[in-house]
Design a protein that fits this description.
The structure is a single chain. About 35% of the residues are buried. The chain starts with a helix and ends in a 9-residue tail after the last strand. The strands form 8 sheets. The chain has an 8-stranded mixed beta sheet, sandwiched between helices. By secondary structure, it is α+β, with helices and mostly antiparallel strands. The chain is globular and about 100 Å long. The longest helix is centred in the first third of the chain and has 20 residues.
């Protein structure tokens, strides 16, 4: 049984109440300085270009951090791409401007920024407000009802407009956190990195802020590759770039980051999911719009099936990915009791989204969004189709011919040119890109009134009966075209990894700290030690190393002259879950000891079996309890671990 199946079996049909206890934020905060010391010393990650002073929001992964990142990505592929037969592609980071004009990023991919009026230092406005509120609440001594009022304000800042944010900052009396100076009015700041493609200086492009657009623009090729079948999903792992206003908190807010995104294309008339029934009885912490508005804790006693039936979660496919995301985070090593799913409030949700939930993980910095799961409706494909003039559709196949009405929109281009002048081309392109359903709506509106209003970009225009006519014909068809809707789970790999570091960090005491990674994501699976530097032991070390490598198991040999206790401590720190020791009994008995990181218990096992046992432990086929029940315990000499 693989790790994925073991998790499914453990929680299937049960309320999500694993044995682990909630890690209190104060505990995470207390431990953070010890964790950061370990991460820095053992080169899990570091500030990029540190010899030149570093650059805020840019980080390099060292060998153990890079290995953890690779393993988390491999687990993600196993959990999603392999499990659901997804198509995987890899697209470029550099993207022409027209793509992001079509997607709306050029116009709307903004955060609000305020600046210190004297030194012009910029701050992200919403974070400034929430951090100010957190400090006010932590100080205490607030008037009755003020705490609840501040919490309500903190929940409302996402999606707040510039004028409202400016007024709120003045009302709360927030100053520059660095200098105490006044702050400027809030203005929009586009988060994309712009550049020029080619030598002319006239072909503008951007570094992508997400991987999704590469999938959307390849939709025609993808559905063709998939034989026209719907639904289907496409996945991509790659870098995203966002020019964060004030990056901080290590890997949690950076300017270059690894993303893993899924675009699940579905018929808008059939958003059910064939596997949802396997997960309908799960109960997850759902922090719904209602809970946030009323200031109550997340709902924990409602099954996903009931949440979908009551339209708290909009549809089965969204519910399916919410549950699969939870199981993936648990498999990575995130504490299950420090996860919640927060629904976007109506005023923070994108205008095109039907529903959106964030998987948030509690860290020492508070609740952090690590995965966004959104029903993006047909917005993306419709937008790209309209701008590119390329049809991005799927088809519902009929078993027999059906008679349908086909609506043709006929424009009087001469009159439109006189009426709309410079805007005429944009209006015609808009009308040409209307779907059959949208044409019928426009036809109905003009049948009821002499004129109606359309929205093209940021402008409104009046369309009259004189400008457009409609021709309706009946036609026999064997299929019906439609623009697929998209359900998108988007994972921030770096944020998940940082939360994993915090949740799995442990202290035997202040001197002996380590990270208790699940074996599947541990940077190295097993260390190999000769108990002393004896040349006779080298042949056994090499044989075991080769047997592990043949099974694809990463290992680290430490044959330095340090004591066995010191060598254990070194590999414990970086989270190597198992250790094999070649000792004085190995040459005669052909056995070694196998040690487990958490319990420090050891068993004696034959040289020929040890690699297979480690492989089974890493894959989740057996547990350490199975090993201790099968093999003879080995007691280390008293004090050897501390030597």
């Amino acid at each position: 049984m693989c790790i994925r199946d073991s998790i499914n079996a453990e929680y299937m049909g049960k309320r999500m109440e694993p044995a682990s206890q909630t890690i209190d934020k104060s505990v995470l905060l207390t431990r953070r300085k010890f964790l950061e010391d370990l991460l820095k010393r053992r080169f899990f990650y570091t500030n990029a270009f540190s010899i030149y002073g570093g650059v805020a929001g840019l980080y390099d992964y060292g060998p153990p951090g890079c290995a953890v990142k690779t393993n988390v990505e491999a687990l993600w592929r196993e959990f999603f791409v392999l499990e659901d037969d997804m198509l995987e592609i890899s697209c470029t980071n550099l993207t022409p401007e027209v793509v992001f004009q079509a997607s709306g990023h050029v116009e709307r991919f903004n955060d609000l920024i305020v600046r210190d009026v004297k030194n012009s230092t910029g701050f992200r406005a919403d974070k400034l407000v929430t951090e100010f509120i957190d400090k006010q609440i932590e100080k205490g001594n607030l008037p009755p009802g003020r705490k609840e009022e501040l919490e309500k304000i903190a929940r409302s800042v996402d999606g707040m407009k510039a004028d409202a944010m400016t007024n709120l900052i003045k009302e709360l009396g927030i100053k520059s956190p660095d200098t105490g100076n006044d702050l400027s009015e809030a203005v929009e700041f586009n988060l994309m990195f712009s550049t020029q493609i080619g030598p002319t200086g006239t072909f503008k492009g951007y570094l992508r802020p997400e991987t999704a657009q590469g999938i959307f623009v390849n939709f025609r090729r993808l559905i063709e590759y998939n034989g026209g079948r719907m639904p289907f999903a496409c996945a991509q792992i790659g870098l995203g770039f966002r020019n964060e206003i004030a990056p901080r908190a290590g890997l949690l807010r950076v300017r270059e980051f690894q993303m893993a995104e899924i675009e699940h294309f579905v018929d808008p008339l059939a958003k059910n999911h064939p596997k949802f029934g396997n997960y309908a009885s799960y109960r997850l912490p759902l922090y719904s719009q209602q809970c946030q508005t009323e200031g109550t804790d997340p709902v924990r006693d409602l099954s996903l099936g009931d949440a979908v039936a009551q339209k708290i979660i909009d549809n089965e496919t969204l519910g399916y990915f919410i549950c699969r995301t939870y199981l993936f985070l648990v498999a990575c090593g995130i504490n299950p009791n420090n996860i919640r799913f927060r629904q976007h409030q109506k005023d923070e949700m994108a205008h095109y989204a039907t529903d959106c939930w964030d998987a948030e993980i509690e860290t020492s910095y508070g609740w952090v969004e690590c995965v966004g799961i959104a029903d993006r409706s047909a917005y993306d494909l419709t937008s790209h189709s309209r701008v590119s003039k390329v049809e991005l559709v799927a088809a519902r196949k009929f078993t027999a011919a059906r008679q349908v009405e086909v609506v043709t929109l006929i424009m009087d281009k001469g009159k439109m040119g006189k009426e709309f002048k410079a805007d005429n081309r944009a209006i015609q392109e808009y009308l040409e890109g209307l779907s059959d359903a949208e044409k019928r709506e426009l036809q109905k509106a003009l049948a009821e009134k002499e004129s109606t209003t359309i929205q093209v970009g940021e402008k409104s225009f009046t369309i009259t009966r004189e400008l457009v006519k409609f021709e309706v014909k009946e036609q026999n068809v064997m299929e019906e075209k439609f623009v697929p809707n998209v359900i998108e789970p988007s994972f921030g790999i770096g944020r998940i990894i940082y939360a994993l570091f915090e949740h799995r960090f442990k202290m035997r005491d202040e001197r002996r700290t380590y990270i208790d990674f699940p074996p599947k994501v541990a940077p190295i699976k097993v260390s190999i030690f000769p108990v002393v530097a004896n040349p006779e032991y080298r042949v056994f070390v090499e044989e075991i190393r080769k047997s592990l490598k043949r099974l694809g198991i990463s290992c680290k040999v430490d044959d330095s002259g340090s004591s066995i206790g010191r060598r254990y401590a070194r590999t414990d720190e970086i989270g190597i879950p198992f250790a094999i020791t070649v000792d004085n009994l190995t040459p005669t008995e052909k056995t070694v000891t196998l040690r487990e990181l958490n319990t420090l218990k050891q068993v004696r096992i034959s040289n020929s079996q040890v690699a297979q046992v480690v492989w089974d432990l890493v894959e989740g086929n057996i547990t350490w309890n199975d090993v201790t029940a099968t093999y003879k315990a080995f007691e280390l000499e008293v004090g050897a671990e501390d030597a």
